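REQUEST ID: PR-0412
SUBMITTED BY: lab tech R.K.
PRIORITY: routine
TASK: structure prediction, single protein chain
INPUT:
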Amino acid sequence: MNFWRSLVGKLWITIICLVAVVLITLGLFLLPYIDSNFANSGAIKRLFTYVCMIGFSLTTFFALFLFTKITQPMQQVIEAANNIRRGEYGTRLTLVTSDEIGQLATSFNHMAEELEENIRSLNQEKGHLSSVLRSMSDAVITFDIEGRIILTNPHGQALLETWSDLAWEQEADSGLYPPSAASGEVPPPLLHLFFSTLSQGGDQRSNVHVRQGVWSVHMAPLYAEDHLRGAVAVLRDVTEEVRLEKMRRDFVANVSHEIRTPLSMMQGYSEALLDGMASSPEESSELVQVIHDESLRMGRLVKDLLDLARMEAGHLDMMKVQVDAGELLERVYRKFAVRAKEREILLELKKSGPELLLKSADEDKLEQVLTNLLDNAFRHTPAGKMISITAGSMILEGRSYLEIEIRDQGVGITPEDLPYIFERFYKADKARVRGESGGTGLGLAIVKNIVESHHGSIHASSKPGEGTAFILRLPVEKQ
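STATUS: complete
OUTPUT:
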């Protein structure tokens, strides 16, 4: 520290100036008096000069003493304060004096201890909050009053990065979101909730639809000393829950639809028998036959539901052995050959190799798969058309697969419906073609589960009016 700019330096200069003024004033009055009244005036002048020099020396010594006792401890206090400002909260003063500087050092040490404890508590709370946010499976995003993002957890950051790649401007033009949504920090799907939270000052809840996903959003206001300073949003991905809830509602509706028809027919025909409306044994037999057929259809529906439930729960009992797929296809072909002749449909079987073996498969389940697929093909193919079964081996990603294609020339499936044909009761909502087999709408769902249990895959391609092709791939080697 510059001595001349310190408190002691300024004090020393002031004292020197005062002493100099006093001595000069005394000299101006005393020198003429000394020359006129004292014979040895030179000695008195020398004495006066020595006194001035001693006075100046004493003031200098006093200034250095004050510099040591006051300025140096204050310099330590300043250095310690700078260390605290730089974040070195463990800094302490070692001054042990009973004066005001000692009291200042004691107060400074107490302040540093309290500050260090508060900073440690804040860091612990911050670490605890960070751990809680990281461990949350929900996305957490905090906004300030201007809508800028000030805090997120990892899931929230990942969600923001995903949403940032979407073209919000196009949806803003379509009216789904405000035009200013694309330029703000708040994601466009959350703008309405954000403004509602700021205007009403209370918690807001809503489901937000983004592309094919559904998010449950809970947004709450943030306050600082009774002043609203922003909002925090907690987002949970409920896409699967919404999908399962829709599937549950559709399942209940479809099962009710499927069961209501045979029940109504059984009730109506049984009431006709009880009321004696049948006038001849032939009419009674016909009514009984209808009741019997409808009861069989209900039985098939219940059996398919139970089979599908067991498959989806992972309780499907399978006896996997080596299966000759060529022989299996021949047997299924012979089983449907008579039906094809009766329906005037050309049924063809093409095998590309002499041996089509599966090292580990359940022959009965695979026969059920082929039967369901061919049954669907026959129910949707008119007379005079063709159904073909093609089987062969293929290599995909270094693994051997058996590929079976069942192609018909039926009415086909629209592109909008094609992704959903393996769901339960797919045809219940459309113009359903039952045919003589009385399908339950669960066949393709069962087929998909059986194929996946064999570690295989199945997909369909179709053009309306031209027909449909189901391609089944099963791994040859044991999985």
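NOTES: The chain is about 55% helix and 20% strand.
REVIEWED BY: pending
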